[in-house]
Amino acid sequence: MAKSPLWDNPDFISDCRSGMRKKDIMEKWGVSSGLVVDVRKESGVSASTGSAQGGGNAIYPQGRQLLEEREVLADGTLKLTKVAERVIPLSEWLEDLRLDGHNPDDFDTSHGHSIYLQHTRDQVTKTLYANKFSATRRNKKLVRSATDIDPLALLNSLRAQSPARPSAYVPIESDEDSAFIISINDIQLGQAYNGGSPRAIKQFYEFITLAQQRVLELRALGRRLSTLVVVGGGDLVEGCVIYGNQAFSLDLNRKQQVEGVVSMILHTIDSLGPMFSRIKVLAARGNHGENRINGKYTTLDDNDDTHAFEMAKLALSRDPDYADKIEWTIAESEAGVWCEVFGWVLVTTHGDIYAKGVSGATIDKKAHTWMKNMALGRGKFGRLGEADVLITHHFHHDKMSDWGSCLWRQTPSQDNGSPYFEMATGEYSEPGMLSFVMTENTRYQDEAVLRVAGR
Q1: pLDDT of residue 48
Q2: Which of 61-70, 348-357, 423-432 is most confident?
Q3: Distance CA 99, CA 107 (A)
Q4: How far is 391 from 295, CA to CA, in rounded Å?
Q5: What is the mean pLDDT of the chain?
Q6: Which residues contact 228 (CB under 8 A, 6 or more apart)?
Q7: Is residue 55 very low, low, confident or very high in pLDDT (cuts 50, 70, 90)?
Q8: What pLDDT is attached to residue 377?
């Protein structure tokens, strides 16, 4: 069969040798697939090896000894193709991985080659080998950053260094009764960075010491403060499976995180409880406390943040000094919880409930929309929609808005910050513990964000 005259057309041959798709060449020149394939074979072009971006076929031009292509698939598999005049052994492929900064032991690998003959129309000029190599990263065994941290021992050591007992509650003369409120939130105990869990525990211990001092200051101003309200805002633990490979950034496992948080809650009651005649505990669940499988929560009420409060409740219910002194409101599957303080409705939710899926251009607007949603569902969600004061967390930065019938306050966090977030955004938040006073006549006053000196 006579060859097509296009064999002698330099423009057609140039298109076949380029990265142009075969389909486009066929449409441009009105030729069959077979002709394009034949021309490419005789021109030394591989029909099976595409570029890393899928932008056409690779060219093995006459006289060129090496062509390398690289592709990274969505699952992380690295694929390399090298065209050379020899077969490339596995040892050289592994050395390439090392030069790219990888440990070959972390990968499952495979390699092979195909033979291509580079030739002109009349004779073979070169034998080439298309060497192919793939490396798929293995699932590494997750290893914690540290294994020798004992949260309870750290807390007990701090208590031994400062053995002073809290002053007992003594009623003072005042025109109205009042309550002292503190928020425990976003500790995320178990984070290994920025000093890790030891620093977080020491910092929390100092927050509670500052809270004791604040109570004495307020009483000196004439506040009766008969009631202590402890708000548990969620994300007290860091969790273990919130995101992929999280265990590499942890210095405490799940069990140690929960034990540490329970100890910190009990320390709070031990240190502040004797200073008041009654105590209210209002605890919401956070997203980091969720028990997850493959990154997805299991059930809404299986949450380590609220579990820690339940354990503290169980321990204190056996203590005659506290059995009848504490009123507990601990979230189960609901996102928000509430209690009355001198007739005012105090509500807390972690804040993740309106972080996504609730309309609003800012955090303030999202929180406001969520509050209106709760008002629409009155009766179904208890008194969440009747909040006089709404305390939320999750976003780690101080914010506040007065919406009229409801005052919204977002708390600072009590962790030590995220290096990744800070370097990505340039933003950071100084750790702090929100405290304020509610009275019989005033829903919110005497705010003080307790911060540790020297930060």
Answers
A1: 41
A2: 348-357
A3: 14
A4: 27
A5: 85
A6: 179, 180, 181, 182, 272, 273, 275, 276, 278, 279, 280
A7: very low
A8: 86
Beta strand ranges found along 37-168 (DSSP E): 45-50, 57-59, 67-72, 78-84, 107-119, 124-137
Strand boundaries in 350-428, DSSP class E: 389-392, 399-402, 407-410
Between 72-76, 303-307, 315-319, 349-353, the lowest mean confidence (pLDDT) is in: 72-76
CB of 436 closer than 8 Å to CB of 448: yes
Nearest Cα to 57, choosing from 84, 32, 28, 23?
Answer: 23
Contact yes or no for 338/327 (Cβ under 8 A):
no
Strand 67-72 relative to strand 107-119, pairing: unpaired
Pairing outcome for strands 278-283 and 227-232:
parallel
Taking 50 as the threshold, does the pLDDT of residue 390 lie above it?
yes
CB 291 within 8 A of CB 307: no
The HSE-up count of residue 295 (CA atoms within 13 Å, CB side) is 4
* CA neighbor of 132 nearest in space, from 80, 93, 87: 80
**Percentage of residues in the chain having pLDDT higher than 70:** 86
Mean pLDDT throughout 326-354? 96
Comparing CA positions, the residue from 355, 198, 364 lying closest to residue 287 is 355
Answer with the residue of higher pLDDT: 9 or 121.
9
Q: How far apart are CA 261 and CA 311, in angstroms?
A: 10
Tokens for 97?
Answer: 């991985």
| Three-class DSSP category at 215 | helix
Q: Are 352 and 371 in contact (CB under 8 A)?
A: no
Task: Give the separation between CA 444 and CA 194, rounded to whole angstroms.
Answer: 34
Q: What is the CA radius of gyration of the chain?
A: 33
What mean pLDDT comes out for the span 321-337? 95
Categorize the per-residue pLDDT at 420 as very low, low, confident or very high, splitting at 50, 70 and 90: low
b/e burial code for range 350-387 (CB count within 10 A of at least 16 → b): bbbbbbeeeeeeebeebbbebbebbeeeeeebbbbbbb
Contact 396, 355 (CB under 8 A): no
Q: Whose CA is closest to 431, among 401, 409, 454?
A: 454
- pTM of the shown model: 0.69
Averaged pLDDT for residues 278-299: 91
Structure tokens at 282: 């209002």
Sequence-distant (6+) residues with CB within 8 A of 188 are 200, 235, 236, 237, 238, 288, 413, 415
Q: Which helix (H) or strand (E) holds 311?
A: helix 304-317
